[in-house]
Amino acid sequence: MLRTYFVDSGAGGCGVTFNSRCIVEMLLQQKQNRIEKIYVVDVFALYTDLCNETYGLRDDIVDGVCVFAINHRITCVDDWFSCVSLLDELGAFDQTSNTRIVFSASRYASMLFAENSMLVNLLQTLNVVHVWTLGTTEYSVSNLANKVRDYPLFYSNGIVVRNLKNGNAEDFIFWNGSELEKKLRGYGWHVVDEPLVSGENNTARLANRNLHDLFAIFEKTDFDGSNNA
Length: 229
Hints:
By secondary structure, the chain is α/β, with parallel strands linked by helices. The chain has a single domain, classed as P-loop containing nucleotide triphosphate hydrolases (Rossmann fold), CATH 3.40.50. Helices cover 35% and strands 21% of the residues. Strand 3 (60-62) and strand 4 form a beta hairpin.
């Protein structure tokens, strides 16, 4: 089975890169429903720091799981199509294996694909689950609202992560109780709070059990409004 996690946000600094790395770590630790291949794709426009020494991701085989670490800067729509072509060449779309793709997307990169209906239709075939890392700003909410409005089918599945690094739960005033929250919960989206974790480095933070348990929910969810956990 192929499932694609598209990690996105409406503003910089909300935790997209770190949360993408958390998802990869969770996938590597799966004991049931063992993953065979993970394609990690950093599609930030200005810089890419997920697939390097900062987060310790590189092409590797980890406990039998093939990890493909890909830096692919997105500065125009054609870059998105070349990224999809590269994934196809690497065998990412093979439906006979249990495969996961994790896109770590900058606001600009996600804006480019959302404005191209052909690209949206293409990505829609990849069993996409949106992971929206929420900030406390109005733009973080309105940006998601616009995408849901323009492509309701594409944004029918997902998880909103209120990253408590960005503020306390009550600080998300533009999200809490909003029409968008009501709409997405009605679609079957899940809303989770990411705890603030401390550590001397990313390795120490990634080892936090609370984070692992949080992101493990992603693999236990059918995203049809029900949860298998």
